[in-house]
């Protein structure tokens, strides 16, 4: 054991942190070593001085410590906790499941309505055809959901089209 | 209308129970009773009035939020004291990240001059009253580095064991022992210096 280790162990003995065989051995060394005994005595004296020596203080009168600030912070914390807890049960669940499902349901509904209401114009559309409508002939609704990276565009063109005019646009 | 509880004369465990059930007035009474004590602990570690006020205030907010975790193993003020101590240690860590503690780090690595000095014998109780001694000890504490003062406060005032201090400060037990030894030696030296200066000792 070097000198530094010995000093730290004597301190541990003074602090009651050294127990068992190690403590016994050190006590035996203290009996035969005046230098170590003196160190033990000095450490004990410093420890005695420090015990309970924390200076009592009162909160400064001019300071910012106020019950109103504590109660405000508590209130704010509780509101924040409620705000964070709420979406987990309500809005998050709604955004994650109900909204996308509603979107899909709308799409299915639109497609099925198209099947039943679209006039049979006997027009075969190839892939490269574009349909053009003026803004007042068509209603467009879009639904975006960032969570699912999905956009639904709902085109409502259930308007009274004359077969000849539609044919004209489709060339 | 039910009668309002007599908060100012209520026993501490009763106030704690009321506060746990959401009674803010009971909590306010606890704040009134222990606010100075919590402030003292924060000040002992931080040595800065404004920071000590802020941290003790934060400790009360945290205490309210964690009241359910208080089961009376320690006394309520001891539990509170642990909360404010933890906040102070967090603040010291934050400050340490913000500035390089290079001189202290260098001293600890190479061994400062004081490590080679003898531990002074200080027995000033005969020459001084307890209050005056406390003030001198307080002034000496203010001259220690953050880490040496913290280890003294945690050991002597907060009454943590070495192992607990090591955990709190994120270091080894050996380092705690070494810092405590150095801090005591420095305290003894500072106290002796001031007593000598005032002619209280030879």
Low-pLDDT segments, ≥5 res of chain A: 129-133
What Rg of chain B, in angstroms, do the CA atoms define?
A: 20 Å
Mean pLDDT across the residues of chain A is 75
Per CATH, what is the topology of the largest domain in chain B?
A: Arc Repressor Mutant, subunit A
Distinct helical segment count of chain B: 9
Give the helix proportion of chain A (percent range). 55-70%
Mean of pLDDT of chain B? 88
Spatial strand sequence of the major β-sheet of chain A: 1-2
Layout of helices and strands:
The complex is a heterodimer of chains A (171) and B (202).
Chain A (H helix, E strand, L loop, with lengths): L2 H12 L5 H13 L1 H17 L16 H23 L1 H27 L21 E7 L4 E7 L6 H7 L2
Antiparallel strand pairs in A: 1-2
Helix pairs in contact in A: 1-3, 2-3
Chain B lengths: L11 H9 L3 H23 L2 H17 L10 H23 L3 H9 L19 H13 L3 H12 L4 H8 L3 H25 L5
Helix pairs in contact in B: 1-2, 2-3, 2-4, 2-7, 3-4, 6-9, 7-9, 8-9
Structure description:
Chain A is mainly alpha-helical. Among the domains of chain A are: 3-50, no CATH class; 106-169, no CATH class. Chain A contains 6 helices and 2 strands. Chain A has helices at 3-14, 20-32, 34-50, 67-89, 91-117, 163-169, and strands spanning 139-145, 150-156. In chain A, strands 1-2 form a two-stranded antiparallel sheet. Chain A is elongated and about 105 Å long. Chain A starts with a helix and ends with a helix. With 202 residues, chain B is mainly alpha-helical. Chain B has 9 helices and no strands. In chain B, helix 2 packs antiparallel against helix 3 (49-65). The longest helix of chain B is centred in the C-terminal third of the chain and has 25 residues, at 173-197.
């Amino acid at each position: 054991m070097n000198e530094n280790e010995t000093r730290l162990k004597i301190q541990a003995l003074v602090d009651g942190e050294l127990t068992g065989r190690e403590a016994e051995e050190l006590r035996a060394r203290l009996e035969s070593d005046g230098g170590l005994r003196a160190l033990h005595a000095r450490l004990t004296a410093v420890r005695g001085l420090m015990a309970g020596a924390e200076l009592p203080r009162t909160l400064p009168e001019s300071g910012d410590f106020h019950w109103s600030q504590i109660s405000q912070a508590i209130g704010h914390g509780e509101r924040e906790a409620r705000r964070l807890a709420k979406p987990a049960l309500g809005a998050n669940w709604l955004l994650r499941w109900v909204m996308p499902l509603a979107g899909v349901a709308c799409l299915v509904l639109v497609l099925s309505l198209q099947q039943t209401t679209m006039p049979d114009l006997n027009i075969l559309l190839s892939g490269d055809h574009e349909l053009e409508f003026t803004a007042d002939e068509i209603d467009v609704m879009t639904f975006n959901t960032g969570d699912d990276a999905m956009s639904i565009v709902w085109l409502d063109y259930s308007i009274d089209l004359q077969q000849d005019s539609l044919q004209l646009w489709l060339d | 209308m039910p009668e309002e509880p007599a908060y100012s004369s209520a026993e501490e465990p009763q106030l704690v129970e009321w506060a746990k059930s959401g009674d803010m007035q009971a909590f306010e009474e606890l704040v009134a009773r222990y606010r100075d004590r919590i402030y003292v602990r924060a000040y002992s570690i931080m040595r800065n009035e404004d920071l000590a006020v802020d941290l003790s205030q934060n400790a009360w907010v945290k205490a309210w939020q964690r009241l359910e975790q208080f089961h009376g193993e320690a006394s309520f003020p001891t539990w509170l004291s642990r909360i404010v101590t933890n906040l102070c240690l967090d603040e010291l860590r934050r400050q340490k990240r913000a500035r390089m503690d290079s001189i202290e780090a260098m001293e600890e690595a190479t061994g400062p001059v004081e490590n080679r000095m003898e531990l002074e014998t200080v027995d000033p109780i005969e020459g001084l009253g307890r209050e005056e001694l406390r003030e001198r000890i307080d002034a000496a504490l203010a001259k220690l580095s953050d880490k040496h003062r913290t280890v003294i406060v945690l050991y002597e005032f907060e009454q943590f064991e070495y192992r607990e201090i090591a955990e709190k400060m994120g270091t080894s037990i050996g380092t705690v022992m070494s810092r405590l030894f150095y801090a005591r030696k420095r305290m003894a030296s500072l106290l002796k210096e001031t007593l000598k200066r005032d002619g209280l000792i030879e």
